[in-house]
Every structure is written in structure tokens, then in C-alpha cells.
Specification:
Layout: H1 5-10, H2 12-15, H3 21-30, E1 32-36, H4 42-52, E2 56-60, H5 85-96, E3 101-105, H6 114-119, E4 123-126, H7 131-144, E5 148-153, E6 157-163, H8 178-181, H9 194-197, H10 201-220, E7 229-234, E8 239-244
Parallel strand pairs: 1-2, 1-4, 2-3, 4-5
Antiparallel strand pairs: 5-6, 6-7, 7-8
């Protein structure tokens, strides 16, 4: 996919990168990425995907901008309070990069519509804030054979991983599913919401930006991704650790009938 002269100037720092270059930038331009959630994680994620030149960004969110969002949801501004987040985010992308198309889906993603939404894109990035949505997204990505970059926030901590559960690893075993990592959701109320417990605003920026980096990596194809690895960030200690995890034969998506 050819780049226009102003795109060559815009993406100049990518074009001189040995592992990206013209072919990598063309792949970004041709890519269709679905972002689930335009909140704390989705805000910086969408901004960096747009700046990187991802050709089409789908945004799924049914919420409106609230004043309490602005401490971390940096794609929205004070004049956007009360507006649908998908509209505010789309306007921000248009200001940042007119070469990027936005497809706004003002709806809540769930089991009923997840597969149809996921199937329309090449890759999914999930920044939702609840387990029901995370399971619906990850299951849909498995069935529709789409890569998934997924992250979560705590008060002072965050996690990030990439799921390619529809593929096999170098050892011939299936890649792990999200349900291999988190077999069951915690009981309702066991984990306080962001509104109840709070969250460090800048941490959302760090994790959302890292999501964008992982999405770009998956599209362009450089370095070592996070398939089978969970990146854990501790903002209190400024510590980054990686936990390896694998396919579980008793997972309900790609497990074996006998579970072993």
C-alpha cells in the first residue's frame, strides 16, 4: 500500500527504523484494529495507534465522557464531558492523523455481538474494565482466529499479554487461551472497581502505550511478542516482571476431551 508524500514525512522516524521501514509502515496502513474501550487504557492506545498510521481503528464503547474520567482518559477533554466516548475519540484521531479512518461502535460488547465485531478486524486490543467483556472478547478472537492484545489495570499495577490461541507454538502445542491464564472470573465484588478503589492516572498511560507498542509489533512483525508471557508492572516499586504461562488441556476452547 503506497504512502502519500505527506505520510512519508509524517512517518519518517518509522521509515528509517530497520525493523519497520516502508514495508512495515505499509502493513500498518493496511491494518484494521478493533479497540475495546475508549477509557483509561483505550485513550492512549488509540492515540498511539493513530499516530503510528494504523489505517482503520474500530472503537467499541457505550459510555459517555465524565469529569472523573479526565484524570487518566487523555484522549478526551473538558469540553467533551457528556459526549459519547466513541465520538470524542474519533474527533481526537481526526485532529491527530487525517489518514486514519475511525469506525465508531457505540454499543457494549458482549457474547451476542462479540464475534461479529471481532470478525471485521485483523487484530483486537482489549482495554475493557470487567471480566465479562474480557472473556467475551477473548472467546470471540479464538473462534474468529484473530490475535488479541489485552491489558488490565489495578490501583498501582497493570498486566499485559498477547493471545494467539487459534495458532500453535514452535513446539506444536496449541498457544494458550485467555482462559488458560484466567480459568474463571473472580466472584462478583471480589475486585473493587476503579471508582471504588482508584487508579493512578499515569499508569493507565503507561499500560495503554505498551498495548499500542504490542499491537504495532504484531502488525509489523519485529522482536519477541507476549504470546505465552504475562507482563506485570508494579508502579509502586517501578518493577517490570514477566510470568510465562502455557496451554492448559482442560480449557473450554481448545482443550482435549479428556483434559490431558
Amino acid at each position: 500500500m503506497a504512502l502519500a508524500p505527506d505520510e512519508i514525512a509524517r512517518y519518517a522516524r518509522h521509515l528509517v527504523l530497520q525493523d519497520v521501514g516502508g514495508p512495515g509502515q505499509a502493513r500498518l496502513k493496511a491494518a484494521r484494529v478493533l479497540v475495546v474501550g475508549a477509557g483509561g487504557l483505550g485513550a492512549p492506545l488509540i492515540q498511539y495507534l493513530a499516530a503510528a498510521g494504523v489505517g482503520t481503528i474500530g472503537i467499541v464503547d457505550d459510555d459517555v465522557v465524565d469529569l472523573g474520567n479526565l484524570q487518566r482518559q487523555v484522549i478526551h477533554g473538558t469540553p467533551d464531558v457528556g459526549r459519547p466516548k466513541v465520538e470524542s475519540a474519533a474527533d481526537a484521531v481526526a485532529r491527530l492523523n487525517p489518514h486514519v479512518a475511525v469506525e465508531a461502535h457505540r454499543t457494549r460488547l458482549g457474547e451476542a455481538n462479540a464475534r461479529a465485531l471481532v470478525a471485521a478486524y485483523d487484530l483486537v486490543a482489549d482495554g475493557s474494565d470487567n471480566f465479562a467483556t474480557r472473556y467475551a472478547v477473548s472467546d470471540a478472537c479464538f473462534h474468529e482466529k484473530r490475535p488479541l492484545v489485552t491489558a488490565a489495570l489495578g490501583q498501582f499495577d497493570g498486566t499485559l499479554t498477547t493471545i494467539r490461541a487459534h495458532e500453535t507454538g514452535p513446539d506444536g502445542r496449541p498457544n494458550p487461551t485467555y482462559r488458560c491464564l484466567f480459568p474463571e472470573a473472580p466472584p462478583p465484588g471480589a475486585i473493587p472497581t476503579c471508582a471504588q478503589a482508584g487508579v493512578l492516572g499515569a499508569l493507565a498511560g503507561v499500560m495503554g502505550s505498551m498495548m499500542a507498542m504490542e499491537v504495532v509489533r504484531e502488525i509489523v512483525g519485529f522482536g519477541e511478542g507476549l504470546v505465552g508471557r504475562l507482563l506485570m508492572v508494579d508502579a509502586r516499586a517501578m518493577r517490570f516482571e514477566t510470568l510465562r504461562y502455557g496451554w492448559h488441556p482442560r480449557n473450554p476452547l481448545s482443550g482435549t476431551p479428556e483434559g490431558g
